[in-house]
Amino acid sequence: MKVAVAGCCHGALDKMYETLELLQRRHNVRPELLLCCGDFQAVRNEADLHCMAVPAKYRHMQTFYRYYPGEKKAPVLTVFIGGNHEASNHLQELPYGGWVAPNIYYLGYAGVVRFRGVRIGGISGIFKSHDYRKGHFECPPYNQQTIRSAYHVRNIEVFKLKQLKRPIDIFMSHDWPRSIYHYGNKKQLLKMKSFFRQEVESNTLGSPAASELLQHLKPTYWFSAHLHVKFAAFMQHQANSKEELPKATKFLALDKCLPHRDFLQIIDVEHDPSAGDSLEYDAEWIAVLKATNSLINVTPSSWNMPEKNGLHAKWDYSVTEEAIKEVLEELNHDLKIPCNFTLTAPCYDPSKPQKHMEPVHTINPQTTEFCAQFGLTDINDRIQQAKEEGSTRGEYEEEEEEEMDSTGSAEEPSEYNTDNSGLSSINPDEIMLDDEGGDEDLSTCSVDPSPDHPPDFSASFSDIRIMPDSMAVSSDDAMDSTNEEPEKSGVSKLVEEKSLSERPLKRIGGNENGNSGGKKIKRRNQAIYAAEDEDKTE
Questions:
Q1: What's the total number of domains in the chain?
Q2: 337 and 105 in contact (C-beta within 8 Å)?
Q3: Is residue 112 part of a domain?
Q4: Which residue, 133, 439, 182, 434, is CA-closest to 299?
Q5: Among the listed residues 183, 232, 47, 94, the one whose alpha carbon sits nearest the alpha carbon of residue 480
Q6: What pLDDT digit, counting tens, does each position of 190-216 carry?
Q7: Closest by alpha carbon to 224, among 42, 17, 6?
């Protein structure tokens, strides 16, 4: 089964789907599934735009609003995770996942689904240590803090995913797993992006939470976005026991969706030919949600997940085969996700703009139905109750006053080393890119296939290494041999929209607070949303 994968979409749905249609016409390649690794921007109206953590001049409606009411329909089943440039109020309606438009499915804060026997998981948002141990307490209308903390990864989602025992075929995260750059062509990455060197050598680039999940889940494929660069790696995992078979993960970070850029990736995935073509629930994941339901926290108070440290009566929330069987019986062995999409907000009308439309906290019927079916807590309903009592808002305002640091972020201890990615700019989550060469097309092979021939989706990975338990790599290891030749890598060839001919993978990388010495730098959102910007330098 052919699967298309995209990086940051930034609301350019028309462009993605047009590229897929051109691919089919020119090369007779028709993916059955499209995956998007965040920054999808499911913006329905002006109120949604106000809930995106970007400067006002970069808030553009794009094209999702035409898919939301069914004016257009996605030509291929699309599954996506959230990033850090999202209409957070919209995605917050679906904490356990759901349809944001016909044929477009959001995985939720974290989720696992199945399609034609392929098991697909993902986690939304980006990692920030000061919010990692908090509950999901945010709700619209957001303030300057919650508009960002709403998309920060929480420890409960990581904890849930770590309860999974069955193999994962594909996993998605928005930001990169920390240390993954040590398993690809690091020499080329640092050659082209030298200002990443400090973060690579200090092993601080990327998400430690995603790294923990990578080490635990060991999926066949892992896709990320966020840094707007292409980078491939191959990670050989250590076996936990003599009986366990060796596992390896093919990692690929994807570029952003732009015209005349090769932003799509096509992979061939083994599937179950007898399985239907509907998106399905994953029985083990549903069982894990039921088992961890009591751990839900909707306050800004920080707390740790249960551990085997003598402080918790229970720390293992993984599920038994019997619990999975019970889920199957509840569903009468019909795992098909219902197509129960409903409109929950007015749709943007270009002829009647409403610039002052305000966001409201909405309880989505899909979530209500899902929670009722499986006996789960409706997070938004719980937040609404707390909000009405006045407890959540009051606690957070007090916390802001007591713990605000110079960048406007409440900093708290974490089980991970404190991330150093905060900037003293408008959005402390933004990533700094080289002003000169942030978007150049870098490749490790100078020969492109003929456009007259269809793409060959075979690929190879290089730099196979054993993953250490801690995933910590010394600064000495961050330097590749000077006589090492760059090697091709990737799970498949990259498809460019303009020519739809193959391109080799690009070996470049990014970081959250990279320093390019004397070079001029600009914030990541400027690179995303516009070519001209008055605020180029920090």
A1: 1
A2: yes
A3: yes
A4: 133
A5: 183
A6: 777 787 788 888 999 899 999 999 999
A7: 6
